[in-house]
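Repro:
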Amino acid sequence: MILLSDGRGIILEKVPEYKVFKYQYNSKEDRYKMRKILSHMKYNIETWPMFKFVVGKKINGGNKNDVLHISFDCSILDAWSAGNMIYKLFALYEGEK
C-alpha cells in the first residue's frame, strides 16, 4: 500500500521481494541503538515499503539470541492490526499455522 498526496490509498498489485535487513550486536546497548534508529524512521508514504523488518544476531550468540525489530508507518497499521500482526508472527515462529 502507498498513499497519494491527495490522501487516497492504493494497494499495489505487485511489489518487489522484500529484503529483511540484518545486523550483528554484542550488547543490549547495540540493540537499543537499532531500536532508537527505527523508532525515528520517516517513511515516504508515496513509495513502498512503509515498514522495515530488521534482525539482530548476537555475535557468537547462536539463534536463541536473535531479535526482530519491526518499524512501520502508522498510516498502514493501527494498534489492533499491529498487535494482530505480532501475534501471528509469534505463532509462525512457534511453528503454528
